[in-house]
Amino acid sequence: QRILRLAEMCRRLETEDEKVLPFYPSSLAEWEQHDARRVLEETPSEPLAQALQDYVGLERFWQRFNKAKLEEKALEQALAALTNRNQHLRQLLQQYLQGVALNQKMLRDLHAL
């Protein structure tokens, strides 16, 4: 029941594109897709392959999971890049403020003469 509730929550959070196009586009060529379909339609002979047939329904879950992980990694990289940029801008601001303070000191010294 927990899995069904999570699936319902996921469906509610789907974007319009995901609702209309439930399948991710394949990067395989047409002949590769044909070969993959043929292999999937064959009855597996090995025990492990037979066990995996039971989990074919989880393929969409794993697609979404992988998509979420990729987005998470992309966000981590973007955060790291923004953090580096922020640090660089802080250094530039600090140099600028030091230069302004030095110029003000020099102007005061000139006026004192």
Question: Please, could you describe this protein's structure?
Answer:
The chain is mainly alpha-helical and 113 residues long. The protein has a domain at 1-79. It is 80% helix and 0% strand. It contains five helices and no strands. The protein has helices at residues 2-13, 16-20, 30-41, 47-53, 59-112. The longest helix has 54 residues, at 59-112. The chain is elongated, with a radius of gyration of 29 Å.
Topology, pairings included?
Layout: H1 2-13, H2 16-20, H3 30-41, H4 47-53, H5 59-112
Briefly, what is this?
The chain is mainly α and 113 residues long. It is 80% helix and 0% strand.
Order of SSEs: HHHHH
Shape, per Cα inertia axes: elongated
User: Quick check: average pLDDT?
Assistant: 82
Low-confidence stretches: none
User: Mind telling me the C-alpha Rg?
Assistant: 29 Å
Helix amount, in percent? Answer: over 70%
Total number of β-strand segments? 0
Question: Which keywords apply here?
Answer:
80% helix, mainly alpha, 5 helices, single chain, elongated, 113 residues
